[in-house]
Design a protein that fits this description.
The protein contains 28 helices and 19 strands. An eight-stranded mixed beta sheet has the order 6-5-7-4-8-9-3-10, sandwiched between helices. Helix 23 crosses helix 25. The protein is globular and about 70 Å long. The protein starts with a strand and ends in an 11-residue tail after the last helix.
């Protein structure tokens, strides 16, 4: 069978046949085997039949990439994108969105959902994510019965169990298409200063116990690994630290120059053509340019979107030989290399350092080996043999053994929407529909979920969001459209509080709500005292807001947010903080998302007009999304 000029593999044909039979399909296959082609077939089929398809992705970077790809394939008029801070062509037959947006549309019974035939869940294993997994489960639970799903994932050991759960709550066949053979086989190596480059399978598990206290001296670094590459470029070098991504790239570019004179000219021409005027004047652009002209680059979430696009474009053109990247590169961008390197097989997960699990390892390692170009992909992990858990490493690289698990948690928003749209019996059925309950099938778990529901119901009733008769109040209706810090945002903006605050002060409050503090973040606070104290006096009128909001964040953010809100330029903003440019942009875009939620939630024209004014102060110039609305 041929599609897009390519001969399809057996597993792709099997999946497509099930789609033709109007079944839902779970495709479990290694990275780089061609799962995307199944999605492309599904989209073409339903667009040709004048039916709507929704494509969901776990992160905005992947949504943005897919929007670009689909507009090239089908034309701008056929494709829309919705990611909270970006809304373009929302009535299009092919809609690209984050999974959160799809779930929110389901809960609010958005009219768009009525015309959807198929939903494609890319990277469905994100259902196991502790912070965001609930969104994926609810996206399936709340979907209308007529909608079918194409769930794409790297290897899922319990795919049959997962499919059985969907089938049990949606009452239609869900077929698993398993495929465990990579198009380009992988060879796994470790590099240690004392033993050199070694096939992982040949590592001896000696009687010496790893010593986690050993640090420093006599250990290898990234340069040692790069010297092993020789004919194994291009390489993606995964580093679980943004600052080290840049540091390592600068170190390598000072030591090596991989590009010819002609390639240098091509790189300079490409960057000049694609860099925006504002970005071209920034130090970050100069720092990146000094690396990329030598065929070395870095890519992480702290980079400006424009610079990330330039790196991706040069990598795609084969002009980058070594790319240092954080793990988001493996999810957001489908760009394989000949070799994948790891600076470490351990990462900090916000609580402690731990080894990667097998799904994380293969998600990244799977970028090694370009289909139709390389006979094999090479994976090299940098280790320190004196402190490494060799047995664990050997197990890690053997096979992806991580099953999908449930991380279902009831949010305030879900409780509000359940009360609004369902009676007691329906709520009971829905609460029993989550994947965790299916896996356990134990009554005490249902008691725990009902207890969680009843506790939130009691709190929401006491705070005036739900009546004792279980009908939503107007404040409850407002909160139904808020999907982050629902109570805090509703208490601020359903009250008269906003009237006593300027647009800039409101932006400072919203920023403090969405800002995620990191230990090394620094902000200039000189001159912030008066504005800060005025904001405190206003929020002090509401006991819940006064006790819940992070006041330290308000104080720290006042100068930065005021600078941008008062029409400052981005260079001025950079003088108020040590946040990376991309992190500042992301903070502003999260603010835009919340502002749009408030605008949609309120029926108060005065509040709506004020928040529109707040949004316009933030959504401008370099912050504006890369797509024209």
């Amino acid at each position: 069978m041929q599609f897009k000029g390519l001969t399809l593999d057996d597993f792709q044909i099997r999946a497509i046949r099930q789609i033709e039979n109007n079944n839902s399909v779970v495709v479990s296959a290694p990275t780089g085997t061609g799962k995307t082609l199944i999605a492309d077939y599904t989209i073409s089929k339903f667009l040709n039949a004048k039916r709507r398809v929704i494509y969901t992705a776990p992160i905005k970077a992947l949504s943005n990439q897919k929007y670009k790809d689909f507009t090239k394939d089908y034309g701008k008029e056929m494709v829309g994108i919705m990611t909270g801070d970006i809304v373009i062509n929302p009535e299009a037959p092919l809609l690209v969105m984050t999974t959160e947006i799809y779930r929110n549309m389901l809960l609010t019974h958005d009219a768009v959902i009525s015309y959807v035939s198929y939903v494609i869940f890319d990277e469905i294993h994100y259902i196991s994510d502790p912070e965001r997994g609930t969104v994926w489960e609810e996206s399936i639970i709340f979907s209308p019965q007529n909608i079918r799903y194409l769930c794409l994932s790297a290897t899922i050991p319990n795919a049959a169990e997962f499919a059985e759960w969907i089938s049990s709550i949606k009452a239609h066949p869900v077929i698993v298409v398993d495929y465990d053979k990579r198009a380009v086989p992988l060879k796994h190596y470790v590099y240690d200063k004392s033993i050199g480059l070694f096939k992982t399978e040949d590592l001896a598990v000696s009687g010496i116990q790893p010593n986690p206290l050993i640090r420093g001296q006599n250990t290898a670094d990234h340069m040692d690994v790069v010297r092993q590459l020789k004919d194994k470029m291009p390489a993606i070098f995964f580093v679980f630290n943004r600052k080290n991504c840049e540091k390592f790239a600068r170190e390598l570019s000072k030591d090596k120059d991989y590009t010819t004179k002609q390639q240098k000219a091509e790189i300079i021409s490409y960057t000049r053509e694609h860099v925006s005027k504002e970005v071209s004047q920034m130090n970050s652009y100069a720092r990146l340019k000094s690396c990329i002209v030598k065929g070395v680059a870095y890519h992480h979430a702290g980079l400006l979107p424009n610079l990330k696009e330039i790196v991706e474009g040069l990598f795609e053109k084969g002009l980058i030989y070594v790319l240092y990247a954080t793990e988001t590169f493996a999810v957001g961008v489908n760009m394989p290399a000949k070799t994948v390197c790891f600076n470490s097989l351990e990462k900090y997960d916000g609580i402690s350092f731990r080894y990667l699990n097998s799904k994380e390892y293969f998600q990244l390692a799977g970028r090694a080996g370009r289909r139709g170009i390389d006979k094999e992909g090479t994976v090299i992990a940098l280790i320190d043999r004196r402190r490494a858990d060799v047995a664990r490493i050997k197990q890690l690289v053997t096979k992806d053994i991580e099953p999908i698990v449930s991380e279902f948690r009831l949010s305030v928003n879900t409780v509000l929407n359940l009360v609004k749209n369902h009676n007691d019996d329906e709520i009971d059925t829905i609460l029993k529909s989550n994947f965790d309950y299916f896996l356990r099938m134990k009554s005490e778990h249902q008691v725990r979920i009902m207890a969680s529901f009843n506790n939130k119901l009691k709190k929401l009733t006491a705070m005036g969001y739900i009546t004792h008769e279980k009908k939503l109040t107007q404040k409850g209706e407002f909160a139904c459209h808020v999907y982050f810090e629902e109570l805090l945002i509703s208490e601020i903006f359903y009250s008269q509080m906003y009237k006593k605050l300027s647009e800039t002060e409101i932006n400072c409050l919203i920023a403090a709500i969405v800002y995620e503090e990191k230990r090394m973040d620094m902000f200039r606070t000189k001159g912030a005292k008066n504005q800060y104290e005025h904001i405190l006096r206003v929020i002090g009128e509401n006991k819940y807001v006064d006790s819940t909001i992070n006041k330290r964040s308000i104080f720290r953010l006042v100068a930065m947010i005021s600078s941008w809100s008062n029409n400052g330029n981005f260079t001025d903003v950079l003088t108020t903080t040590n946040l990376l440019e991309g992190d500042i942009i992301r903070l502003f875009r999260r603010m835009i998302d919340i502002q749009r939620q408030i605008i949609k939630a309120t029926s108060n024209n005065e509040l709506r007009d004020k928040i529109v004014g707040c949004l316009k102060k933030i959504d401008r110039d370099i912050v504006r999304a890369e797509f024209e609305e």
